[in-house]
Each structure stands twice: as structure tokens, then as C-alpha cells.
Amino acid sequence: IKLFTGTSCIPLAKKIAEYLKVPLCDRDIIEFPNENLFVQLKSSVRGQDCYVIQTTSRPVHRNLMELLILIQTLRLDSAARITAVIPYLCYARSDKKDQPRVPITARLIADIVEVAGADRYMMVDVHAGQIQGFFSIPGDALTAYHKLLEYLKKLKPGLTSPVVVSTDLGFAKKARNIAEVLDLPLAFVEKRRTGNDAKAEALTVIGDVQNRDVILVDDEIDTGGSMDNAIRILTKMGAKDVYVTFVHAVFSGNAAERLSASPAKRFITTDTIPIPEASKLLFGDRLVILS
Ligand code: R5P
Fold first, then answer.
1. Could you tell me which residue ranges the Ribose-phosphate pyrophosphokinase N-terminal domain spans (predicted)?
2. Are residues 87 and 182 in the same domain?
3. Among 11, 54, 189, 287, which has the minimal tally of Cβ within 10 Å of its Cβ?
4. Which candidate in 2, 15, 147, 191 is catalytic?
């Protein structure tokens, strides 16, 4: 097989290459002054089984274009099969028409990945399961929860009356699965969004969290609003230590500053999106990145 990566998640791509004992293939990616991108492969991929590892976190449109151009370049160089490995899929929250006259952008992303020339896709903990149905090519919707669960299982014996808490009702099913695997009770933060999906406001807690350590779960942290509000209301309701657990560290705007200033005991995540060194420093040893 041949492994390629864009510039969005080089550390993760290197780990995958090491794990598979397959080198990353050399390629040039150049941005011209007019922001157009140029890609050139440094060796032939004719007849090869190729994988492009590229997460589509910020800068979203640059990273997405790198992915699409890499796929097209492989297609034009006669690769036998191309798999788009997208650890974090951008626009995954735009998965339905829940207001009049709005797009379903996740569907558009699936379409353009196919049009570029991908034969298969791989994604990790994509926001909504139905997004798999937006692709007509086959693929694998992978999960990183087993990594988080391994960690939480080791943590559990040292916790005081632990409870799993979902940051919102939309994540309830997945939170219930996590609680079941850990054999722990479940509670919920009832979250309501205000404004245009940018601000979140946590309103109340459903379930018993008083004098308990909390494992607070969600799929991603974007602006940090949902988590920050959840941590605050849980603390107000008498929760003890809060362990924040999530797959995708999107960390837009001042999310890292905001969350690192919160009283949460630990932040447990994965490397589907690289976290900038400056943000890591803010969290210090409260941040655990699983691979
Ligand atoms: C929403 O449906 C997701 O599960 C997360 O709760 C959300 O993406 C977090 O966003 P933010 O960090 O901006 O509150």
C-alpha cells in the first residue's frame, strides 16, 4: 500500500505509518500567492492501493482542498484504489435541513470526496451516523471510544461514586453505551443553544451528580461553550471532580483558554486533530491525548 498525507495531521499520519511499517510517500504541496494549491507526487502510484490521511479541521477549506487535490492527483496517476482517511470530517454538524432554505453541507462534502476520485472512505466518530449514507462509495466509520474507554476503565477504581454525564441529550445514546461498558449510572446536562449554533447554554442536570466524580462525555469540543457550561452547572449541583472526555479537539477561538481555566480535573481526548503546543501548555498535565 502507499500512504500519503496532506499538511493537516502529519504527526498522526507518521504514527499510522510507523504502526503499519509502511513509509509515508513523498509529495510536494505548494501554496501560490493567490492561495491556489499545487500538488505533485514524487513517485508513481500506478496500480497501487493508496491512502490519503488528512483531517479536515482548521484551516478547514485549505485542508479540504489538499485532500481533494491529493485524491485527484492519485486518480490521474492511475492509482488502483484510493481511500480517503478523514479522522475528523468537517461540516459533519450540517447533516439535516432543520431550518428552511439551508444546505446539508455534510452531503456536499461526501459528494466532492467521491467526485475527486475516492473509492473508499474512513472516518472516526463522525458526528451523526447517517452521514455514512451520504456516501455512495463504501467505507468504514471507525470509533476511538475504545481508546477512551480503556483509559476510563483504569481510572474508575480511583473515583468516588462515579457517574457518566452526557453534555447534551443529543449525545444520550452514545453516553448510555459508555455508561453501560463502564457499568456506571448515567446523567444528562440539558443544553439549549442560543443564537446561530455558535453559543451554547447549559440549563439543568437530569440525574444524580451530588458528591460524585463525573465522567463528562461528548464527541467534540468546538468553542468549548457546551463543556464549560456543563462543568459549571455540574460543580454548582455538587459534583466532585469532573473528567472531560471527547474524541475531537476542534478547539476553535479561545476554547483552550476557556476550558483550561475551568475547574475540570482532566481532559481526555485523541489525536484526530493536532492540538497546538501553546494550547497543550495551557492545560499542562491535565490534558491526556490518546492515540
Ligand atoms: C454538538 O452537537 C456536539 O456534540 C458538541 O456538543 C458540540 O460540537 C460542542 O460545541 P461547542 O464546543 O462549540 O459548544
1. 1-117
2. no
3. 11
4. 191
